[in-house]
Amino acid sequence: MNAPKVFAHCDGPCGIYDPASARVAAEAVLSMTKKLLSLHTHGDEDPKVSVSYHNTLARYVAIKEGQAELTKHELLVLWTDFFKPAHLEQFPDLHDVFWNAAKLCSACKQEVSLEKAEALLKTVEKIHEMFWKAKGRDVAWVAAGG
């Protein structure tokens, strides 16, 4: 009998947290949103062109959806596991920032909105700043995308 595979960010006192994974995922959401908005059909007269367009569209949407969900997961781990009640004194808007970030993740899945994808990345940047300030470190925000 094989034990089922389980996956989790340890839920133990490992202390290994970093908002970088949320940043990378949010950047992918923004990148895929831009690609979707610039994708143009070349007409359905050529079945190969139509199939290629729909394949690319489906792939971009799948990536955007997956990365938005990953962003939400990474942020929720930070919110629920790293940040403690004492951090509310330092960051009175902590719950609002995370709540809004989670809502933006959902909106980025539901829509193809450049405005919401950019807002998500900006919110992840704010969380990055809060996180490193809470740890007493000054870590620069460096985006991988262009």
Account of the 3D structure:
- The protein has one domain: Nickel-containing superoxide dismutase (Four Helix Bundle (Hemerythrin (Met), subunit A)).
- It is 66% helix and 0% strand.
- The chain is built from 5 helices and no strands.
- Helix 1 packs antiparallel against helix 2.
- The termini are far apart.
- 24% of the residues are buried.
- The mean pLDDT is 90.
Keywords:
146 residues; Four Helix Bundle (Hemerythrin (Met), subunit A)
Write a short abstract of this structure.
This protein has 146 residues and is mainly alpha-helical. 66% of the residues lie in helices and 0% in strands. The chain has helices at residues 20-38, 47-82, 87-90, 94-110, 114-134.
Write the layout of secondary structure elements.
Layout: H1 20-38, H2 47-82, H3 87-90, H4 94-110, H5 114-134
The number of domains is 1
Unreliable segments of 5+ consecutive residues: none
Corresponding CATH superfamily: Nickel-containing superoxide dismutase
> Which class of secondary structure composition applies to the elements?
mainly alpha
Mind telling me the CATH class? Mainly Alpha
Helix content: 55-70%
Largest sheet: none
How far apart, in Å, are the first and last alpha carbons? 49 Å
Overall geometry: elongated
In the CATH hierarchy, the third-tier topology is known as Four Helix Bundle (Hemerythrin (Met), subunit A)
Radius of gyration from CA coordinates: 18 Å
How many H/I helical runs? Answer: 5
Number of strands: 0
Strand content: under 5%
CATH architecture: Up-down Bundle
